[in-house]
């Protein structure tokens, strides 16, 4: 231990903690905001300042902060059975009940649940189970995944390879698994002049098919995508996109993995985004709002066809050689059960749809015509504003991210926490937010927006 420990918790943070998704040198200069407690849609720092959490933490705190029912559920389970594993025929009641509940509310073909601790682990597991499944079928060459540029699927080795964001690859030597990335389905950015959304979707489906045929259909295992892309900039797909993508995948025996780590549990105004977009997945990946992030938990739901092949192969080999020490954790799954009960009992999916309409309308009314705003987009309680240097040409700022960061910083001054993804400002408030709270959130953001753009926007 150092002989003179810094007195301030802020200084200790800078001295001892390496932060995720952070410029470490910038952090040394500015230090952290220490979040001390939370209540409803608000969090409070250690100096007593209040912030509306317009990102629900990291797209995840559905029921808000300080929900006593979740704390009580965790405490009860900690007293009864604080931990057990799911290896070698062992189980626990909360894991069984949550798996049953997830199958009940998920797309019809999904019949089995595998629990992990994070979305990254869940997507890693999806890769391994798809490989295992195809090997069990004797299709040993069917290994390559197709993902999208700008997609986000996590940061572990396999999940990070699936992710299509340069900063998650650069200097990590990723991608390392066989993966091909196709065009981001972002109509505003990548549609050709005069092209309709349907025509854009058709072109992307044709690109997908060409990619499959070039590689050889016998080598392509699965297509993975977020129904609505989150960390890549909150990008809803164009009209007809998922229908056309699914048709191509079914034509060539390619599995569809729907990554609903952000979308799931009501974010778009339906329990799952698969319902919103008419997606019939072979694998559904869930995390974040599954416990409102009060406990680390994620889940994969798989079709019966995949399960039967996996079960047969585990009998042939003698085991399914995959699992996590804390997978199907009794405390995490107990919290997940109670969280799901709160979402259902309090009508939070319906609230997301109703208050989401207010958010979408107000964002467009207030910002769509601003000269530095290229696009306002989103569905339900998830949205983004894309900032541009030139509205007519859609030219990006140089350097990218300077204005976004200025708005992010100004947000703290005005008591609202948003997320800057380069020069895209994301919103994803807790599902419990009321219409009055939404208006207050947008009022605070609007003040921050005008402060930052007045200082940095070109004349």
TrEMBL record:
It comes from Aureimonas endophytica. Keywords: Aminotransferase, Pyridoxal phosphate, Transferase. Signal peptide: none annotated. It holds the Pfam family Aminotran_3. Belongs to the class-III pyridoxal-phosphate-dependent aminotransferase family. Coiled coil: none annotated. Its cofactor is pyridoxal 5'-phosphate. This is Aspartate aminotransferase family protein. GO terms for molecular function: adenosylmethionine-8-amino-7-oxononanoate transaminase activity; pyridoxal phosphate binding. GO terms for biological process: biotin biosynthetic process; gamma-aminobutyric acid metabolic process. It comes from the Bacteria.
């Amino acid at each position: 231990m150092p002989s003179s420990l810094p007195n301030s918790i802020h200084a200790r943070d800078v001295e001892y903690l390496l932060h995720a998704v952070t410029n470490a040198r910038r952090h040394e200069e500015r230090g952290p905001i220490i979040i001390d407690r939370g209540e409803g849609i608000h969090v409070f720092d250690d100096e007593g300042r209040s912030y509306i959490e317009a990102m629900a933490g990291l797209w995840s705190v559905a029921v808000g902060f300080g929900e006593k029912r979740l704390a009580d559920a965790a405490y009860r389970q900690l007293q009864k059975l604080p931990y057990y594993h799911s290896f070698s025929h062992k189980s626990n009641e909360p894991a069984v009940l949550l798996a049953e509940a997830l199958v009940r509310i998920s797309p019809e073909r999904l019949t089995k649940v595998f629990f992990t601790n994070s979305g990254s682990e869940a997507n890693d597991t999806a890769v391994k189970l798809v490989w295992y499944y195809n090997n069990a079928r004797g299709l040993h060459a069917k290994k390559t995944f197709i993902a999208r540029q700008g997609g986000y699927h996590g940061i572990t080795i396999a999940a990070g390879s699936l992710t299509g964001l340069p900063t998650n690859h650069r200097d990590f030597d990723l991608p390392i698994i066989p993966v091909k990335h196709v065009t981001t389905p972002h109509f505003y950015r990548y549609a050709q002049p005069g092209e309709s959304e349907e025509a854009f979707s058709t072109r992307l489906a044709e690109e997908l098919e060409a990619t499959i045929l070039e590689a050889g259909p016998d080598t392509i295992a699965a297509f993975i995508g977020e129904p609505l892309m989150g960390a890549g900039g909150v990008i809803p797909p164009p009209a007809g996109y998922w229908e056309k993508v699914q048709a191509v995948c079914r034509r060539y025996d390619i599995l569809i993995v729907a990554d609903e780590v952000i979308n799931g549990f009501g974010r778009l105004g339906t329990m799952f985004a698969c319902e919103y977009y008419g997606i019939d997945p072979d694998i559904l990946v869930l995390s974040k709002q599954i416990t409102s992030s009060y406990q680390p938990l994620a889940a994969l739901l798989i079709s019966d066809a995949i399960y039967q092949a996996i079960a047969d192969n585990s009998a042939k080999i003698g085991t399914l050689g995959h699992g996590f020490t804390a997978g199907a954790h009794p405390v995490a799954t107990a919290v997940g059960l109670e969280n799901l009960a709160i979402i259902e009992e309090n009508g939070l999916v319906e609230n997301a749809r109703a208050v989401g309409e207010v958010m979408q309308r107000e964002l467009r009314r207030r910002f769509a015509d601003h000269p530095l705003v290229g696009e306002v987009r989103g569905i339900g309680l998830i949205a983004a504003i894309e900032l541009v240097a030139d509205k007519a040409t859609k030219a990006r700022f140089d350097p990218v991210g300077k204005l976004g960061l200025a708005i992010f910083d100004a947000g703290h001054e005005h008591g609202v926490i948003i997320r800057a993804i380069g020069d895209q400002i994301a919103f994803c408030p807790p599902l419990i937010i009321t219409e009055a709270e939404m208006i207050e959130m947008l009022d605070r953001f609007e003040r921050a927006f005008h402060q930052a753009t007045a200082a940095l926007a070109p004349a």
